[in-house]
Amino acid sequence: MKNFMCACGNTLFFENTVCLQCGELVGFDPATMQMLPAAHSPASSLASGLPLLCKNAINFAVCNWLVEGALSTYCISCKLNVTIPNVMQSTRRLWWQSLENAKRRLLYSLLRLRLPIVGRDADPQGLAFQFSEDQRTNPAVSEELVTTGHLNGLITINIAEADLVNRAISQQFNGELYRTVLGHFRHESGHYYYNKLINNDDLLQQFRHLFGDETQSYSDALSKYYGNKHQIAHDPDMISHYAQSHPLEDWAEVWAHYLHMIDTLETAKDYGLHQGSIRFGIFDETLTKWSELTVLLNALNRSMGLEDAYPFVLSELTLRKLRFVHHLIYPS
């Protein structure tokens, strides 16, 4: 993720809605991948000629993207929503803001990599997002259990994942090294792009050679995994413990990891670190930079008395899986 610059010369960050130096209202334009001066209402947009902020920015302050044209009310990110949290509850609105921040970071990466983002207005199984809550955190709702997951393009996120305490409890219970809201979005997007990118027999055979047979019963595999996960030793050839549950979950974990790499390398480059990179076409070069950067990240955390920022060891098989993802995105 790069930083941006206001017309006054001040640095703007991806989540900014106003320049803290000159007070200019700003928004992110996905068409140009830049932060631009913005208007906060249709009337001011018409009067000034400035692009209009998304309706969810104007009404709820949970977005900072610009709409596509004068007739649009929602940005391309918010157009993908089919279910949102209860905006009348302040806590849920804060959770929603956290979810939207993570979603926009995912979409930034997808746009950066020129991956197709097709919503349900153009494809019945297009990309869509559902943010729901269950009775474990709100007895007043009808859903007894909301599971974060993907089905036919619809990514469901349990909004409790946006709560730090709830997420920490889940991370501890599941014995995970890494659990973030952004990680959920990246993982679930992997399921969506599996259906979009592995689209011929040759790629399917390559997938099965690396990840295994995806036709094995998904429900049986996950029942077996969750029933025995504390007794299952971590396979060092798997990028995470959860990747062992099913080939499609292995794929989604690797996909998410690739997006982690790309975004973090771009951030490092924007801050002037020689370990950073914005050149991702050559996988070996990307991997070398990533290795250098993760050593630095872990050393910095240890200097602060913290756990490693990057607690992963990439086996040779995992590297081949990451290379497979890379070549799907950069086929030439």
Describe the overall structure.
This protein has 332 residues and is α/β, with parallel strands linked by helices. The protein has three domains: 4-74, no CATH class; 77-175, no CATH class; 198-332, no CATH class. The protein has ten helices and eight strands. The protein has helices spanning 42-48, 55-60, 90-112, 164-174, 181-197, 201-211, 218-228, 247-270, 283-303, 316-329; strands at 4-5, 11-12, 26-29, 34-37, 81-83, 128-132, 149-151, 154-158. Strands 5-6-8-7 form a four-stranded mixed beta sheet, covered by helices on one side.
Key phrases:
single chain; 332 residues; alpha/beta; four-stranded mixed sheet; two-stranded antiparallel ribbon; 10 helices; 44% helix; 8% strand; globular
Layout of strands and helices, then pairs:
Elements: E1 4-5, E2 11-12, E3 26-29, E4 34-37, H1 42-48, H2 55-60, E5 81-83, H3 90-112, E6 128-132, E7 149-151, E8 154-158, H4 164-174, H5 181-197, H6 201-211, H7 218-228, H8 247-270, H9 283-303, H10 316-329
Portion of residues in beta strands equals 5-15%
What are the low-pLDDT stretches, counting only 5+ consecutive residues below 50? none
Number of E-type strands: 8
Q: Provide a count of the helices.
A: 10
Overall residue-averaged pLDDT value = 93
Q: Alpha-carbon distance between the termini?
A: 24 Å
Structural class: alpha/beta
Order of helices and strands: EEEEHHEHEEEHHHHHHH
Reported for the largest beta sheet, the result is: 4 strands, mixed
Spatial strand arrangement across the major sheet: 5-6-8-7
Share of residues in helices: 40-55%
Overall 3D form: globular
Number of domains: 3
CA radius of gyration is 21 Å
